[in-house]
Amino acid sequence: MTTATTYDVAAVRADFPALRAGAAHFDGPGGSQVPRQVAHAVAATLGSPIANRGSVTEAERTADAVVVAARAAVADLVGGDPGGVVFGRSMTQLTYDLSRALAAGWGPGDEVVVTRLDHDANVRPWVQAAAARGATVRWADLDPATGELTPEAVAAVLTDRTRLVAVTGASNLIGTRPDVPALTALAHEAGALAYVDGVHLTAHAAVDVAALGADLYACSPYKFLGPHLGCVVAAPALLETLHPDKLLPSTDAVPERFELGTLPYELLAGTTAAVDYLAALGGTDGDRRSRLVAGLAAVEAHEDRLRRRVEDAVGELPGVTLWSRARHRTPTLLLTWADRPAAEVSRALAARGVNAPAGSFYAIEASRRLGLGDTGGLRVGMAPYTDDSDVDRLLEGLRAVPEG
Ligand SMILES: Cc1ncc(COP(=O)(O)O)c(C=O)c1O
Protein backbone atom coordinates (compact mmCIF):
# COMPACT_ATOMS: atom_id res chain seq x y z
CA MET A 1 0.00 0.00 0.00
CA THR A 2 1.21 3.52 -0.72
CA THR A 3 2.04 5.34 2.48
CA ALA A 4 3.24 8.85 3.16
CA THR A 5 6.84 7.61 3.09
CA THR A 6 6.50 5.58 -0.10
CA TYR A 7 4.54 8.17 -2.09
CA ASP A 8 6.12 7.87 -5.52
CA VAL A 9 5.83 11.34 -7.00
CA ALA A 10 8.06 10.44 -9.98
CA ALA A 11 5.62 7.70 -10.96
CA VAL A 12 2.72 10.10 -10.52
CA ARG A 13 4.40 12.74 -12.68
CA ALA A 14 5.00 10.22 -15.46
CA ASP A 15 1.22 9.84 -15.72
CA PHE A 16 0.64 13.53 -16.49
CA PRO A 17 1.29 14.32 -20.19
CA ALA A 18 0.86 18.07 -19.56
CA LEU A 19 3.97 18.14 -17.36
CA ARG A 20 6.11 17.30 -20.39
CA ALA A 21 5.58 20.88 -21.56
CA GLY A 22 7.99 21.78 -18.77
CA ALA A 23 6.18 24.24 -16.52
CA ALA A 24 6.17 23.89 -12.73
CA HIS A 25 2.46 23.97 -11.92
CA PHE A 26 1.46 25.75 -8.73
CA ASP A 27 -1.88 26.65 -10.31
CA GLY A 28 -3.72 23.50 -9.16
CA PRO A 29 -6.24 25.36 -6.96
CA GLY A 30 -7.58 26.87 -10.19
CA GLY A 31 -7.75 23.47 -11.84
CA SER A 32 -5.39 20.51 -11.73
CA GLN A 33 -3.55 18.83 -14.57
CA VAL A 34 -4.99 15.51 -15.69
CA PRO A 35 -3.44 12.03 -15.77
CA ARG A 36 -3.47 10.16 -19.07
CA GLN A 37 -5.94 7.65 -17.58
CA VAL A 38 -8.53 10.42 -17.33
CA ALA A 39 -7.86 11.73 -20.84
CA HIS A 40 -8.08 8.17 -22.13
CA ALA A 41 -11.42 7.53 -20.41
CA VAL A 42 -12.88 10.71 -21.95
CA ALA A 43 -11.62 9.82 -25.43
CA ALA A 44 -12.64 6.15 -25.15
CA THR A 45 -16.19 7.14 -24.21
CA LEU A 46 -16.44 9.45 -27.17
CA GLY A 47 -14.98 6.75 -29.39
CA SER A 48 -17.43 4.02 -28.40
CA PRO A 49 -21.09 3.64 -29.36
CA ILE A 50 -23.03 6.01 -27.11
CA ALA A 51 -26.64 7.18 -27.09
CA ASN A 52 -28.97 8.60 -24.48
CA ARG A 53 -29.37 6.46 -21.37
CA GLY A 54 -31.52 3.38 -21.88
CA SER A 55 -31.54 -0.41 -21.90
CA VAL A 56 -32.32 -1.45 -25.48
CA THR A 57 -29.11 -0.88 -27.45
CA GLU A 58 -25.52 -1.32 -26.42
CA ALA A 59 -25.05 2.41 -26.98
CA GLU A 60 -27.87 3.20 -24.52
CA ARG A 61 -26.56 0.75 -21.97
CA THR A 62 -23.09 2.27 -22.22
CA ALA A 63 -24.43 5.74 -21.41
CA ASP A 64 -26.37 4.33 -18.49
CA ALA A 65 -23.39 2.43 -17.15
CA VAL A 66 -21.18 5.53 -17.38
CA VAL A 67 -23.63 7.52 -15.24
CA VAL A 68 -24.08 4.76 -12.67
CA ALA A 69 -20.30 4.28 -12.41
CA ALA A 70 -19.64 8.01 -11.96
CA ARG A 71 -22.21 8.31 -9.17
CA ALA A 72 -20.62 5.33 -7.42
CA ALA A 73 -17.14 6.82 -7.85
CA VAL A 74 -18.01 10.23 -6.42
CA ALA A 75 -19.93 8.57 -3.58
CA ASP A 76 -16.82 6.53 -2.74
CA LEU A 77 -14.66 9.63 -2.93
CA VAL A 78 -16.62 11.56 -0.32
CA GLY A 79 -18.31 8.76 1.61
CA GLY A 80 -21.78 9.56 0.26
CA ASP A 81 -24.76 7.73 -1.23
CA PRO A 82 -24.56 7.17 -5.03
CA GLY A 83 -28.30 7.87 -5.22
CA GLY A 84 -27.64 11.39 -3.96
CA VAL A 85 -24.85 12.36 -6.37
CA VAL A 86 -25.99 15.16 -8.69
CA PHE A 87 -23.88 16.19 -11.68
CA GLY A 88 -23.88 19.56 -13.40
CA ARG A 89 -21.73 21.87 -15.44
CA SER A 90 -19.94 23.36 -12.44
CA MET A 91 -20.25 23.80 -8.70
CA THR A 92 -21.40 27.36 -9.36
CA GLN A 93 -24.25 26.25 -11.59
CA LEU A 94 -25.35 23.51 -9.19
CA THR A 95 -25.22 25.86 -6.20
CA TYR A 96 -27.35 28.41 -8.04
CA ASP A 97 -29.87 25.71 -8.95
CA LEU A 98 -29.96 24.26 -5.44
CA SER A 99 -30.13 27.66 -3.78
CA ARG A 100 -33.30 28.42 -5.73
CA ALA A 101 -34.81 25.03 -4.93
CA LEU A 102 -33.94 25.31 -1.23
CA ALA A 103 -35.05 28.93 -1.00
CA ALA A 104 -38.50 28.05 -2.35
CA GLY A 105 -39.44 27.33 1.25
CA TRP A 106 -37.99 30.56 2.70
CA GLY A 107 -39.79 33.80 3.42
CA PRO A 108 -39.44 37.05 5.34
CA GLY A 109 -38.00 36.39 8.80
CA ASP A 110 -36.02 33.36 7.62
CA GLU A 111 -32.26 33.68 7.70
CA VAL A 112 -29.30 32.24 5.80
CA VAL A 113 -25.69 32.32 7.01
CA VAL A 114 -22.78 32.89 4.63
CA THR A 115 -19.14 33.49 5.52
CA ARG A 116 -16.39 35.97 4.69
CA LEU A 117 -14.02 33.04 4.04
CA ASP A 118 -15.96 31.44 1.20
CA HIS A 119 -15.50 31.52 -2.56
CA ASP A 120 -18.25 33.66 -4.07
CA ALA A 121 -19.92 30.56 -5.53
CA ASN A 122 -20.94 29.64 -1.97
CA VAL A 123 -21.96 33.19 -1.10
CA ARG A 124 -23.72 35.04 -3.91
CA PRO A 125 -26.24 32.31 -4.87
CA TRP A 126 -27.46 32.30 -1.24
CA VAL A 127 -27.47 36.11 -0.95
CA GLN A 128 -29.48 36.41 -4.16
CA ALA A 129 -31.84 33.54 -3.32
CA ALA A 130 -32.49 35.12 0.10
CA ALA A 131 -33.16 38.51 -1.52
CA ALA A 132 -35.64 36.93 -3.93
CA ARG A 133 -37.60 35.43 -0.98
CA GLY A 134 -37.32 38.41 1.38
CA ALA A 135 -35.10 36.39 3.73
CA THR A 136 -32.23 37.86 5.74
CA VAL A 137 -28.52 37.18 5.15
CA ARG A 138 -26.17 36.99 8.14
CA TRP A 139 -22.42 37.05 7.72
CA ALA A 140 -20.04 34.90 9.75
CA ASP A 141 -16.79 36.81 9.97
CA LEU A 142 -13.28 35.73 9.10
CA ASP A 143 -10.57 36.76 11.59
CA PRO A 144 -8.09 38.60 9.37
CA ALA A 145 -5.28 38.22 11.92
CA THR A 146 -5.43 34.43 12.04
CA GLY A 147 -7.20 33.52 8.80
CA GLU A 148 -9.63 31.45 10.89
CA LEU A 149 -13.38 31.09 10.60
CA THR A 150 -14.25 30.03 14.14
CA PRO A 151 -17.30 28.22 15.56
CA GLU A 152 -17.82 31.36 17.70
CA ALA A 153 -18.09 33.49 14.55
CA VAL A 154 -20.77 31.18 13.17
CA ALA A 155 -22.57 30.78 16.51
CA ALA A 156 -22.78 34.59 16.74
CA VAL A 157 -25.01 34.79 13.66
CA LEU A 158 -27.21 31.71 14.18
CA THR A 159 -30.77 32.12 15.37
CA ASP A 160 -33.80 29.87 15.55
CA ARG A 161 -34.78 31.36 12.16
CA THR A 162 -31.61 30.18 10.38
CA ARG A 163 -32.60 27.89 7.54
CA LEU A 164 -29.21 27.21 5.98
CA VAL A 165 -25.51 27.70 6.74
CA ALA A 166 -23.22 27.84 3.68
CA VAL A 167 -19.62 27.21 4.63
CA THR A 168 -16.44 26.15 2.94
CA GLY A 169 -14.51 22.97 3.65
CA ALA A 170 -11.33 24.86 2.81
CA SER A 171 -10.51 28.31 1.46
CA ASN A 172 -9.24 28.42 -2.12
CA LEU A 173 -7.50 31.72 -1.28
CA ILE A 174 -5.58 31.06 1.95
CA GLY A 175 -6.16 27.34 2.51
CA THR A 176 -7.94 27.69 5.88
CA ARG A 177 -9.73 24.48 6.85
CA PRO A 178 -12.39 25.51 9.33
CA ASP A 179 -13.64 23.01 11.90
CA VAL A 180 -16.51 21.94 9.63
CA PRO A 181 -17.96 19.28 12.01
CA ALA A 182 -18.22 21.95 14.74
CA LEU A 183 -19.81 24.46 12.36
CA THR A 184 -22.34 22.01 10.95
CA ALA A 185 -23.21 20.79 14.47
CA LEU A 186 -24.04 24.39 15.37
CA ALA A 187 -26.13 24.72 12.21
CA HIS A 188 -28.02 21.54 13.02
CA GLU A 189 -28.63 22.62 16.65
CA ALA A 190 -30.23 25.77 15.22
CA GLY A 191 -32.41 23.61 12.95
CA ALA A 192 -30.57 24.68 9.78
CA LEU A 193 -29.13 22.73 6.88
CA ALA A 194 -25.40 22.83 6.16
CA TYR A 195 -24.21 23.35 2.56
CA VAL A 196 -20.48 22.67 2.44
CA ASP A 197 -18.31 23.86 -0.45
CA GLY A 198 -15.80 21.07 -0.82
CA VAL A 199 -14.34 22.23 -4.14
CA HIS A 200 -10.94 23.11 -2.70
CA LEU A 201 -10.90 20.56 0.13
CA THR A 202 -11.68 17.46 -1.93
CA ALA A 203 -8.40 17.74 -3.85
CA HIS A 204 -6.31 17.74 -0.69
CA ALA A 205 -7.80 15.44 1.94
CA ALA A 206 -9.87 12.31 2.42
CA VAL A 207 -13.44 13.55 2.84
CA ASP A 208 -16.30 11.91 4.74
CA VAL A 209 -19.49 13.89 4.27
CA ALA A 210 -21.14 12.25 7.28
CA ALA A 211 -18.21 13.11 9.56
CA LEU A 212 -18.25 16.67 8.21
CA GLY A 213 -21.98 16.91 8.90
CA ALA A 214 -22.62 18.23 5.39
CA ASP A 215 -26.25 17.95 4.33
CA LEU A 216 -25.16 18.97 0.85
CA TYR A 217 -21.52 18.76 -0.26
CA ALA A 218 -20.32 20.36 -3.48
CA CYS A 219 -17.14 19.57 -5.38
CA SER A 220 -15.67 19.88 -8.87
CA PRO A 221 -13.77 17.01 -10.52
CA TYR A 222 -11.47 19.39 -12.43
CA LYS A 223 -9.86 20.29 -9.10
CA PHE A 224 -9.07 16.65 -8.27
CA LEU A 225 -7.42 15.49 -11.52
CA GLY A 226 -10.69 15.07 -13.41
CA PRO A 227 -12.56 16.86 -16.18
CA HIS A 228 -14.50 20.10 -16.05
CA LEU A 229 -17.83 19.57 -14.34
CA GLY A 230 -19.36 19.85 -10.88
CA CYS A 231 -21.21 17.61 -8.45
CA VAL A 232 -23.24 17.86 -5.29
CA VAL A 233 -23.69 14.97 -2.88
CA ALA A 234 -26.66 14.81 -0.50
CA ALA A 235 -28.93 12.25 1.10
CA PRO A 236 -31.51 11.12 -1.50
CA ALA A 237 -34.26 11.71 1.10
CA LEU A 238 -33.27 15.38 1.35
CA LEU A 239 -33.19 15.74 -2.45
CA GLU A 240 -36.69 14.22 -2.61
CA THR A 241 -37.99 17.23 -0.65
CA LEU A 242 -36.71 19.71 -3.25
CA HIS A 243 -38.47 20.51 -6.50
CA PRO A 244 -36.34 22.44 -8.99
CA ASP A 245 -37.82 23.75 -12.23
CA LYS A 246 -37.55 21.02 -14.84
CA LEU A 247 -38.91 20.03 -18.22
CA LEU A 248 -42.24 18.19 -18.30
CA PRO A 249 -41.00 15.01 -20.04
CA SER A 250 -37.78 14.69 -18.03
CA THR A 251 -37.76 12.24 -15.15
CA ASP A 252 -38.68 13.44 -11.67
CA ALA A 253 -36.51 10.75 -10.10
CA VAL A 254 -33.73 11.73 -7.71
CA PRO A 255 -30.97 12.66 -8.48
CA GLU A 256 -31.88 13.08 -12.20
CA ARG A 257 -34.49 15.69 -11.23
CA PHE A 258 -31.63 18.17 -10.72
CA GLU A 259 -29.66 17.30 -13.86
CA LEU A 260 -31.08 19.49 -16.56
CA GLY A 261 -30.63 18.15 -20.08
CA THR A 262 -28.28 15.42 -21.21
CA LEU A 263 -25.29 14.67 -19.00
CA PRO A 264 -21.74 14.91 -20.43
CA TYR A 265 -21.11 11.14 -20.47
CA GLU A 266 -17.49 11.47 -21.53
CA LEU A 267 -16.75 13.80 -18.62
CA LEU A 268 -18.49 11.45 -16.22
CA ALA A 269 -16.26 8.62 -17.46
CA GLY A 270 -13.28 10.92 -16.89
CA THR A 271 -14.50 11.62 -13.36
CA THR A 272 -14.64 7.90 -12.58
CA ALA A 273 -11.13 7.56 -13.95
CA ALA A 274 -9.91 10.43 -11.74
CA VAL A 275 -11.41 8.79 -8.66
CA ASP A 276 -9.86 5.45 -9.64
CA TYR A 277 -6.52 7.22 -10.10
CA LEU A 278 -6.66 8.69 -6.59
CA ALA A 279 -7.69 5.28 -5.24
CA ALA A 280 -4.69 3.65 -6.93
CA LEU A 281 -2.45 6.01 -4.95
CA GLY A 282 -3.75 4.17 -1.89
CA GLY A 283 -2.44 0.82 -3.08
CA THR A 284 -4.32 -2.32 -4.01
CA ASP A 285 -5.76 -3.54 -0.70
CA GLY A 286 -9.37 -3.14 0.31
CA ASP A 287 -12.34 -1.60 -1.43
CA ARG A 288 -12.14 1.62 -3.44
CA ARG A 289 -13.32 3.77 -0.54
CA SER A 290 -10.55 2.55 1.76
CA ARG A 291 -7.95 2.91 -1.00
CA LEU A 292 -9.17 6.47 -1.59
CA VAL A 293 -8.80 7.30 2.08
CA ALA A 294 -5.25 5.89 2.05
CA GLY A 295 -4.39 7.55 -1.27
CA LEU A 296 -5.59 10.97 -0.22
CA ALA A 297 -3.81 10.65 3.13
CA ALA A 298 -0.60 9.98 1.16
CA VAL A 299 -1.29 12.98 -1.09
CA GLU A 300 -1.97 15.16 1.94
CA ALA A 301 1.29 14.16 3.65
CA HIS A 302 3.27 14.73 0.44
CA GLU A 303 1.72 18.13 -0.27
CA ASP A 304 2.06 19.18 3.33
CA ARG A 305 5.79 18.52 3.37
CA LEU A 306 6.22 20.66 0.24
CA ARG A 307 4.03 23.37 1.74
CA ARG A 308 6.27 23.56 4.81
CA ARG A 309 9.34 23.81 2.57
CA VAL A 310 7.83 26.79 0.76
CA GLU A 311 6.62 28.42 3.98
CA ASP A 312 10.03 28.13 5.65
CA ALA A 313 11.77 29.65 2.64
CA VAL A 314 9.20 32.42 2.19
CA GLY A 315 9.67 33.38 5.85
CA GLU A 316 13.27 34.34 4.96
CA LEU A 317 12.30 36.62 2.06
CA PRO A 318 12.29 40.33 2.85
CA GLY A 319 9.07 42.26 2.34
CA VAL A 320 6.93 39.20 1.72
CA THR A 321 3.73 38.54 3.71
CA LEU A 322 2.26 35.04 3.96
CA TRP A 323 -1.50 35.21 4.45
CA SER A 324 -2.06 31.49 4.93
CA ARG A 325 -1.88 31.28 8.70
CA ALA A 326 -4.73 29.10 9.90
CA ARG A 327 -3.83 26.26 12.22
CA HIS A 328 -5.32 23.65 9.90
CA ARG A 329 -4.86 24.39 6.22
CA THR A 330 -4.47 22.98 2.73
CA PRO A 331 -1.16 23.40 0.86
CA THR A 332 -2.35 26.66 -0.67
CA LEU A 333 -0.33 29.77 0.09
CA LEU A 334 -1.17 33.41 -0.57
CA LEU A 335 1.73 35.86 -0.74
CA THR A 336 2.00 39.61 -1.16
CA TRP A 337 4.99 41.93 -1.53
CA ALA A 338 5.39 45.23 0.28
CA ASP A 339 6.87 46.98 -2.73
CA ARG A 340 5.28 45.48 -5.82
CA PRO A 341 2.02 43.97 -7.04
CA ALA A 342 1.74 40.19 -6.82
CA ALA A 343 0.75 40.20 -10.50
CA GLU A 344 4.23 41.46 -11.37
CA VAL A 345 5.82 38.58 -9.45
CA SER A 346 3.43 36.13 -11.13
CA ARG A 347 4.54 37.39 -14.55
CA ALA A 348 8.22 37.10 -13.58
CA LEU A 349 7.66 33.53 -12.40
CA ALA A 350 5.75 32.66 -15.57
CA ALA A 351 8.74 33.86 -17.61
CA ARG A 352 10.78 31.20 -15.76
CA GLY A 353 8.21 28.48 -16.42
CA VAL A 354 6.70 28.63 -12.94
CA ASN A 355 2.92 28.93 -13.02
CA ALA A 356 1.52 30.68 -9.93
CA PRO A 357 -1.27 33.12 -10.71
CA ALA A 358 -2.14 36.31 -8.86
CA GLY A 359 -5.63 37.42 -7.91
CA SER A 360 -8.41 36.99 -5.38
CA PHE A 361 -9.74 33.93 -7.20
CA TYR A 362 -13.41 34.77 -6.61
CA ALA A 363 -12.86 34.60 -2.84
CA ILE A 364 -13.64 38.29 -2.99
CA GLU A 365 -15.06 38.61 0.52
CA ALA A 366 -12.00 36.97 2.06
CA SER A 367 -9.61 39.08 0.02
CA ARG A 368 -11.38 42.28 1.07
CA ARG A 369 -11.57 41.20 4.72
CA LEU A 370 -7.83 40.55 4.73
CA GLY A 371 -7.31 44.10 3.48
CA LEU A 372 -6.19 42.94 0.05
CA GLY A 373 -9.10 44.51 -1.80
CA ASP A 374 -10.07 42.80 -5.02
CA THR A 375 -6.43 42.29 -6.01
CA GLY A 376 -5.57 39.46 -3.61
CA GLY A 377 -2.06 38.08 -3.91
CA LEU A 378 0.12 35.42 -5.49
CA ARG A 379 -1.33 31.94 -4.96
CA VAL A 380 0.97 28.93 -4.72
CA GLY A 381 -0.84 25.59 -4.62
CA MET A 382 0.56 22.07 -4.33
CA ALA A 383 -0.92 19.13 -6.22
CA PRO A 384 -0.29 15.38 -6.20
CA TYR A 385 2.23 15.85 -9.05
CA THR A 386 4.20 18.69 -7.40
CA ASP A 387 7.75 17.66 -6.52
CA ASP A 388 10.84 19.08 -4.86
CA SER A 389 12.30 20.24 -8.16
CA ASP A 390 9.14 22.31 -8.75
CA VAL A 391 9.58 23.83 -5.31
CA ASP A 392 13.27 24.53 -6.06
CA ARG A 393 12.26 26.38 -9.22
CA LEU A 394 9.59 28.34 -7.38
CA LEU A 395 11.97 29.36 -4.61
CA GLU A 396 14.68 30.34 -7.10
CA GLY A 397 12.12 32.51 -8.85
CA LEU A 398 10.92 34.10 -5.62
CA ARG A 399 14.50 34.80 -4.46
CA ALA A 400 15.20 36.44 -7.81
CA VAL A 401 12.51 39.06 -7.21
CA PRO A 402 14.67 42.20 -6.84
CA GLU A 403 14.38 44.12 -3.59
CA GLY A 404 12.50 47.36 -4.23
C1 LIG B 1 -13.53 26.87 -3.13
C2 LIG B 1 -14.21 26.95 -4.46
N1 LIG B 1 -15.55 26.93 -4.50
C3 LIG B 1 -16.21 27.00 -5.65
C4 LIG B 1 -15.56 27.12 -6.85
C5 LIG B 1 -16.36 27.18 -8.12
O1 LIG B 1 -16.28 25.93 -8.75
P1 LIG B 1 -16.81 25.74 -10.26
O2 LIG B 1 -15.75 26.28 -11.16
O3 LIG B 1 -17.00 24.25 -10.39
O4 LIG B 1 -18.08 26.49 -10.37
C6 LIG B 1 -14.17 27.18 -6.87
C7 LIG B 1 -13.43 27.35 -8.13
O5 LIG B 1 -12.33 27.83 -8.15
C8 LIG B 1 -13.47 27.08 -5.63
O6 LIG B 1 -12.13 27.10 -5.58
Summarize the structure.
With 404 residues, this protein is α/β, with parallel strands linked by helices.
Outline the structure in words.
This is Cysteine desulfurase family protein, VC1184 subfamily. InterPro entries: Aminotrans_V_dom (IPR000192), Cys_dSase-rel (IPR011340), PyrdxlP-dep_Trfase (IPR015424), PyrdxlP-dep_Trfase_major (IPR015421), PyrdxlP-dep_Trfase_small (IPR015422). It comes from Geodermatophilus telluris. The protein has 2 domains: 132 residues, Aspartate Aminotransferase, domain 1 (Alpha-Beta Complex); 238 residues, Type I PLP-dependent aspartate aminotransferase-like (Major domain) (Aspartate Aminotransferase, domain 2, 3-Layer(aba) Sandwich). 39% of the residues lie in helices and 14% in strands. It contains 14 helices and 13 strands. The strands form 3 sheets. It has a 7-stranded mixed β-sheet, with helices on both faces. β5, α7 and β6 form a beta-alpha-beta unit. The protein is globular and about 65 Å long. It binds pyridoxal-5'-phosphate (PLP). The site of pyridoxal-5'-phosphate has 13 residues, from α4.
